[in-house]
Structures
1.
Amino acid sequence: MRSRNAVARAVFVILVVSLTWSVWIFARTVRQDSAQRSNAGASNRTEGLAAWQQIYSVLISPRCINCHTATSFPQQGDDRHRHFANVVRGPEDRGVPALQCITCHQEANANSTGVPGAHDWHLAPLSMKWQDLNGNILSSAAVCSDVTDRSKNHNLDGAGLLKHHTVEPLVLWAFQPGLNIDGTPRSLPPLTHEELVAATRKWVEAGTPCLQTH
C-alpha cells in the first residue's frame, strides 16, 4: 500500500513539474513573439518615417510647392516669387474665365518660350497647401498629416497616394520641367521620379506613418 502511494506521489510530482515547465516554455515563447512583433513594428515605422522624409523633400521643392500655396495665386521660379501678370487661383483652382491656367500652360513644355506645360495644369486645392500665407513651408509633420487626411486629399488611401505619385501628369512634370525663358534648365527635385515612387511604396507599406504635430 505504501509503495503504491509513493508511486502515485512520484507520478503526481512529475506531472506537476512537467506542466509547470510546459507553461513556462509557452509563456516565454509568447513573450518572445510579442517582443519580436513589437520590434518589427517599431522598425517598420522607423523605415516608414525615413521614407516619408524623402517624399517630403520632393514635395517642398519649388517644382511642387509653387502650386501648393495658401494664397490666391501660384508661385514660380526657384525663389518662389508670385506668378507674373497677377494670375489668380480662381474658384476651382484653375484661374479665372479670362485667364485660365491652360490658356498658357499647354499639354507639354514650350521650351521656346519658357512656359511649362502638362495635362490639366492647375493649382492644388487649398486643403493641400504646404506653406502658410507668408510663404513659410509647413513642417514635415503638418504636411504628412494633410497628405494622409482623406477628407482633404480627394479620399486617397495609401494605394491611391502611391498611384498619384506614379502616374499623375503634374507629378511627372516635376521631373521633366523643361527650360526657363532664358534657356536654362529648371531645377529638379532632390529625388528622381523612380526614387520618389520607391520611397512612397515603402512609406505606404509601413502604414503611412507621420510624426506627431505639436
Note: The two ends are 77 Å apart (CA to CA).
2.
Amino acid sequence: MEQFINSNKQVMNNYLFSTNMNIEKLSKSVRNVPDFPIPGIQFKDVTTLFKNPEILKELSDGLYEMYKDKGVTKVVGIESRGFIMGPLLAERLHVGFVPIRKKGKLPAETYEMSYDKEYGKDTIQIHRDALDENDVVVLHDDLLATGGTMIAAVELIKKFCPKKIYVNFLIELEDLKGRAAFDPEIEVESILKYDI
C-alpha cells in the first residue's frame, strides 16, 4: 500500500508541475483555524481559496486538466463544500452534477450510508436515480482527513456499479493516512497536502 501511495504522490507532483499550479500560493491562501469545531482539530478553511477569483480560476483550471481526458460522465459532490468546486468542474467537463447530501435533505428515493467522522457520526444519501452503470464518476470533496465521509460516499456510488470512480480532494491531511482506507483501484488525488 505504501508503494501505491508514494506512486500516487509522484503522479500528482508531475500533474501539478505540468499545469503550473502555484501550490505555495494556493497553500498560503488556506486559513488554518485551531480548535474548530472541537478542541484539538486544526480546521482548514477553504473559503479563503474561493473568495479570490484568480485562485478560484486556478483551481477550476487544474481540476479540469486533471479529468478532461478520463471519460467522466458525472461529477458527484459531498455536502456542503463539495458543492462549490464540484459543479464548476462538471460545467467545465460538460457533464452533470449529482449531490450527496446529509440524511433527510433529498426528496425522492435514496440510498444511504452511515459512518464515523473525525468528531461524531453521520449519514449521507444519494438519489437512487442519480447514476447508472454507464457512468464514469469524479467524486469530489474539499478535505481528506481520516477518509470516513468519502469512503461512505464511494460505497454509495458503488451501488450503481459505474464503470469507474475517481476521488478528488482539494486538501489532504497526510498524517491521518486517510488515503490508505481506499481500495487500490480507486484513483485518489489531492491538490494541497498538509501534515495536520
Note: The helical segments are 2-19, 23-28, 47-50, 53-67, 82-93, 148-158.
3.
Amino acid sequence: MRARIGRVLVMAFTVPFFLSSCSTNSAQRVIDEVNAYPLVSTLNGTVPPGEPTLAHTSQEILNVMRDGQQVRVYRDVREAGTRAPIHIHPFGGWTCVVSGQAVLYLDGAEPQEAGPNECFLMPARTPMSNVNPGPGPAVLLDSFVTPPDAPVWRIVEVGVESLGNEFATGHNVKGNHQ
C-alpha cells in the first residue's frame, strides 16, 4: 500500500481503537508467536539486495500513550546499498520516506518502491526487509502502535539476528553511526 505521508500518519493514530480490544493475553500470544518464528535467509526465495545493517542512525521522536496503546515514531537514516535485516513487526507499522528512496521486500508480495512523501504499510507478523537502493541516504519515519512496552520488531535473518534491536522500547537509539 502506497500513500502520501499525511494520510498514513492519520491512519496510525486511528489504529489504537482497533488495538484497544487486544487483551494483555492476546498481545502476549502475538509476541510469543513472533519470538517462535524460525530464522530465514530469503524472502520469496531470494536474498534481498544490499548489506543487512541497522540504520546509520535511529532516533525515537515520539513515544506517547493513547487509549491504552503506545504510539512510537522513529527517524531513521539508512545508507545507500544497505537494508534492514529480514525481520517481523509483531503489530505492524508504517514507513514514510522523507528523502531518498526505499524498497520494501515483503514475503508473499512484489517489492514496493517509495520516494519522498510516500509511505508503505508493514503488515504484522510478515517477514520483510527495507532496502535503500541509493544513490544517497534515505531518511525514513517508522511508526508503530502497540500494546504498552511491546517490542516493535524481531530480526529473523540467519546470521544477523545478533544485530539486536534498532528500535529500543522507550529509548533513543543510535544505530551504526560514527
Note: Confidence is low (pLDDT under 50) at residues 1-21, 168-178.
